[in-house]
Amino acid sequence: MTGCNIHSFETFGLVDGPGVRFVVFVQGCPMRCQFCHNPDTWSTKENQIFSAKEVFEKAIRYKPYWKDNGGITVSGGEPLLQIDFVTELFKLCKENGVNTCLDTAGGVFSKESKFFEKFKILMQYTDLIMLDIKEINNTRHEIITGMKNDHILEMAKTMDEMGKRMWIRHVLVPERSDYDEDLIKLREFISSLKNVEKVEVLPYHTLGRHKWDNLGIEYKLEGIDPPTKERVDNANRILSGNI
Ligand code: SF4
Fold first, then answer.
1. DSSP β-ladder status, 21-26 and 3-13
2. Burial class of residue 35, CB neighbours in 10 A (0-12, 13-18, 19+)
3. Which atom of ligand 1 is nearest to the CA of 105?
4. How far is the CA of 40 from the centre of ligand 1 (A)?
5. So what's the pLDDT on residue 243?
6. Number of alpha helices (DSSP H) and beta strands (DSSP E) in the chain
7. Closest Cα to atom 7 of ligand 1
8. Which stretches make up the Radical SAM core domain (predicted)?
9. Domain 3-239 sits in which CATH superfamily?
10. What pLDDT does 2 receive?
């Protein structure tokens, strides 16, 4: 049994995959997104440890609410940092007919054999992947997340080749990830994939702002407001291919 360092649980998640979902937020993330509303998930310091079986037993009590399309989502933080746990949990889910969704930003993805072998096994038990692509422009991606995006785009292509169902999400941040030329390139990239079922634009918001202060971390988006409705509509139009 692999223990997992967990940040928190949400019993009735409505925005983390299809239907009503039990959401497991794992602790630890290698990215440093300037807009992150959960910077308290970044640290890999031990918070609370649960085995996959314990998490499954906690979640399965909510099965009556999941109906046809709900189930369990593992989010974060970055779930792939604790890939052994996610695989164990999703295996249990599939043995019990539970829908599984992985919400990842792909920051730790690698085709290096040790990780990739584990990833391929995890994919056998994963019904849907929600992958964040924070910026298609590599320079801007590094500014907004602290990391280049090559391996994240490679992950999208790899999952597509595996035939995995994907939702792509893009957080729209004025002055960071809201440029028409980048949105058009992102659309082109998405269009090159065959298994993307949905593209979601997530408007930047400041609801987690206080957490940065509490943690004593400098907030780099000071003075930047959430995007206007026009810019959100514009991003939705471009990313849906309606330009
Ligand atoms: S990948 Fe997610 S959890 Fe990690 S820093 Fe970015 S927004 Fe926060």
1. antiparallel
2. buried
3. 1
4. 10
5. 63
6. 9, 8
7. 36
8. 15-242
9. Aldolase class I (3.20.20.70)
10. 72
- Residue 32 Cα to ligand 1 midpoint, Å, equals 6
CB atoms closer than 10 angstroms to residue 242: 8
For residue 187, the surrounding DSSP H or E stretch is: helix 180-191
The answer to whether residues 204 and 173 touch, using CB atoms and an 8 Å cutoff, is yes
| Low-confidence stretches of the chain (pLDDT beneath 50) | none
Instruction: List the residue whose alpha carbon is closest to atom 8 of ligand 1.
Output: 36
Ligand 1: distance of its center to the CA of 64 in Å?
A: 31
Beta carbons within 8 Å of 139's beta carbon, 6+ residues apart: none
pLDDT at residue number 1: 67
d(CA 104, CA 107): 8
**Identity of the residue numbered 208:** G
Contact between residue 47 and residue 95 where contact means Cβ atoms under 8 Å apart: no
Q: Which residue has the tokens 């043995």?
A: 95
pLDDT confidence of residue 241: 84
Cβ–ligand 1 distance for 153 under 6 Å, the answer: no
